[in-house]
């Protein structure tokens, strides 16, 4: 069973920030939150991951609540090319722990 | 630096035929994975490998076999294809123990 819950879809206006929510209320202390996205029928693309501190890279920011039960992926200035299915995944670091993809959330960026 | 390359990209098979999908990576990654994706679904793990000469089963291994004879290659075989194996297959690779996977562009397989 998926360990995360995401809304099935959301819309965002081009140029605005897109805030993508994810609930992971059963996350364990050693589990990280990973975000991937899949544009159209391409292979998924890694975006960012974090444990408990907020993280930022050239693609996005990840905000994890203090109790770690939820997180938000922020795309600061959404473009049409950000239209994709976004997957929020929890995973233990190290070892051979696999990534389990749920159905994700479809983000549509509108002009 | 090509990343992860999958061949072929498209294939049509008849029920009962066999075929092999090839995945090659040039990033010196230890781990390699095969996923399948059906319409409206997330990716499901078929088999994976944590190193040359090793393989392990994922969520949906039945009907598939794999081999990792060389570190850079991971082969997925269908011995007797069935219509239920019509899907898009994605290969991925990663460094040991990380969750940052690099995916190929996918191989679309249709079994008639």
Topology record:
The complex is a heterodimer of chains A (111) and B (112).
Chain A: E1 9-13, E2 18-23, E3 31-38, E4 45-50, E5 55-56, E6 61-64, E7 70-75, E8 84-92, E9 105-110
Chain B: E1 4-7, E2 10-13, E3 19-25, E4 31-37, E5 43-49, E6 56-57, E7 65-67, E8 73-78, E9 87-94, E10 102-103, E11 107-111
Parallel strand pairs in B: 2-11
Antiparallel strand pairs in B: 1-3, 3-8, 4-5, 4-9, 5-6, 7-8, 9-10, 9-11
Number of E-state strands of chain B: 11
Q: What would you report as the Rg of chain A, rounded to the nearest angstrom? A: 13 Å
Helix content of chain B: under 10%
Largest sheet of chain B: 7 strands, mixed
Proportion of beta-strand residues of chain A: over 45%
Strand percent estimate of chain B: over 45%
Helix/strand structural class of chain A: mainly beta
Described by its quaternary structure, the protein is heterodimer
**Largest sheet properties of chain A:** 5 strands, mixed
Inertia-based shape of chain A: globular
Please write the string of helix (H) and strand (E) elements of chain B: EEEEEEEEEEE
Number of extended strands of chain A: 9
Order of strands across the biggest sheet of chain A?
1-9-8-3-4
Overall pLDDT level of chain A: 92
């Amino acid at each position: 069973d998926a360990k995360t819950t995401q809304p099935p879809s959301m819309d965002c206006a081009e140029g605005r920030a897109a805030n993508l929510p994810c609930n992971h209320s059963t996350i364990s202390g050693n589990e990280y939150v990973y975000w991937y996205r899949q544009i159209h029928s391409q292979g998924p693309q890694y975006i960012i991951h974090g444990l408990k501190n907020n993280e930022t890279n050239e693609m996005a920011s990840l905000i994890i609540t203090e109790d770690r039960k939820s997180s938000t992926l922020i795309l600061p200035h959404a473009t049409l090319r950000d239209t994709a299915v976004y997957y929020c995944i929890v995973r233990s670091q190290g070892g051979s722990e696999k990534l389990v993809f749920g159905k994700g959330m479809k983000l549509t960026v509108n002009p | 630096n090509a990343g992860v390359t999958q061949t072929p990209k498209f294939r049509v098979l008849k029920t009962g035929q066999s075929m092999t999908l090839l995945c090659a990576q040039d990033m010196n990654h230890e781990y390699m994975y095969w996923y399948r994706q059906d319409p409206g679904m997330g990716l499901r793990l078929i088999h994976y490998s944590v190193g040359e000469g090793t393989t392990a089963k994922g969520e949906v291994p039945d009907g598939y076999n794999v081999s990792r004879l060389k570190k850079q290659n991971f082969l997925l075989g269908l011995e007797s294809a069935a219509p239920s194996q019509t899907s898009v297959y994605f290969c991925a690779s990663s460094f040991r123990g990380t969750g940052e996977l690099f995916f190929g562009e996918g191989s679309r397989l249709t079994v008639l």
